[in-house]
Write the structure tokens for this entry.
Amino acid sequence: MSNTNKKAGKTAAANKTEKPIMQTKDLVKTYSTGKLETKALQGITLDIPAGSFSCIIGPSGHGKSTLMHLIGGLDRATSGDVIIDGAKISDLTDNELSELRASKIGFVFQFFNLLKNLTAVENIETAMMFSVNAPKSAKEQRVKALELLELVGLADKADAKPNELSGGQQQRVSIARALANDPEILLMDEPTGNLDSRSEEEVLEQLFRIHKTGKTIVIVTHNNELAAQAEIVYEIKDGKLHDLVKKVNAKKTQKKASKRKKVADE
């Protein structure tokens, strides 16, 4: 075993002793087309500590997005387990899984998927219609949506429609929308992949700001500069966990997250 792999193995083993908010255990995902089978994931085991900022990196087509869809409950594994905040996904009905996603997870994708005929604030309010954690009255939803736009630095764009916003601004609206259900976890698939460098910088600035409120953030990315700033980096190659780099102690991360959340709540 190489020194790099030994180091990764020791880090992974150490990580297992800490309580994660998300886990996978021997996760396998196989796609079948006729008689042809493709193993997108081949036994992935990893832990994501609460309050951490993690990146999943690796070449295109090697299983990164598949992994994100599985840990987010958007797809079911062929075998193995995904555990979110103590709940094993394979034990949940479709309705229970939908409720778990709605209460615990916010999703952001490369393409913004904003409703073009709605303003920025209305796009966020629409997401609240499906949230168990969102305010119930229309007035409270409007207040909450405006607060989220302020969080991502777009308070002055509340009435703008998507075609009146830059790419970076649209992605920031989609991040605000993902926060509409006040999730503990934010999962992102190439959130800066469709942006120019200036817009990318805008979005990253807001992500680090959001992380300071105590959110757990997991990003699938090709962006090495972004990965270099993450606390934990998982590298996926050929559907396997090739390497893991943990830059900070996860227990300290959890304590910092708890402190940040307390400050944010006050």
Remarks:
- The CA atoms of residues 192 and 200 lie 5 Å apart.
- The first helix runs from residue 3 to 15.
